[in-house]
Amino acid sequence: MKLQHALFLLALMTCGTVACWQIATSTAQQPQTQPQPSPQAAATPAAPLSPTQETNNRFVKQISESIAGRENLPAEQVFKNIQHLKGVPAGRLLRIMNGGYSRALGVACTHCHVEQDFSSDDKRPKRAAREMAVMHRSINEQLGKMQNLEPRPQGRAINCSTCHRGAINPMAEGR
């Protein structure tokens, strides 16, 4: 019985080796051509941006121009009143705010920030966002400590979108 099993495995491995050799030699004999992108794929336009995202992109462009040459410095060296994202490069902070916070809540930068003074804490939504950031970190710390999750929690984290999903009010109807 063991001999039959061994012969079967040997035959299987031989067939597999021959098949791989045939594929390799036939591929080597064929002229190599680069795949051409289909005209339809190249012509597909990007989805239009929302008016809110267009506004945010203008703010980010304007601020990026004003910090040119300092994008890689820690945000707290470039901007005033940085509290929770200290150490993050200034250019990345702009991307986090634009691609993270504002998209997660579906809001313009001026929902939280005073347009003429982004460092101001005058607006309640900015203060609330800071409190939410503390809660967010706490939840992610607790997720990291959990022992019985499958799969393991190392890659598991929440962010603003986890609850908000593009809306200011995470409890909004119709979700």
Give the SSE layout:
Blueprint: H1 2-29, H2 39-43, H3 51-66, H4 75-78, H5 90-105, H6 124-145, H7 160-164
Helix pairs in contact: 3-5
Question: Which terms would index this structure?
Answer:
disordered N terminus, Photosynthetic Reaction Center, subunit C, domain 2, 175 residues
Question: Overview of this structure, please?
Answer:
The protein is an all-alpha fold. 55% of the residues lie in helices and 0% in strands. The protein has a domain of 114 residues: Photosynthetic Reaction Center, subunit C, domain 2 (Orthogonal Bundle). It has 7 helices and no strands. The protein is globular.
Task: Describe the structure concisely for a colleague.
With 175 residues, this protein is an all-alpha fold. The protein contains seven helices and no strands.
Distance between the termini: 61 Å
CATH architectural grouping of one domain: Orthogonal Bundle
Largest sheet: none
What's the CATH C level of one domain?
Mainly Alpha
Order of helices and strands: HHHHHHH
How would you describe the oligomerization state of the chains in this entry? single chain
What overall geometry do the principal axes of the alpha carbons give? Answer: globular
Uncertain stretches: 1-38
Spatial extent as radius of gyration:
27 Å
What is the overall pLDDT average?
79
**Estimated share of beta-strand residues:** under 5%
State the total count of DSSP E strands.
0
CATH superfamily name of one domain? Photosynthetic Reaction Center, subunit C, domain 2
Class computed from helices, strands and strand pairing? mainly alpha
Query: How helical, in percent, are the residues?
Result: 40-55%
Instruction: Please name the CATH topology of one domain.
Output: Photosynthetic Reaction Center, subunit C, domain 2
Counting DSSP H or I runs of 4 or more residues, the number of helices is: 7
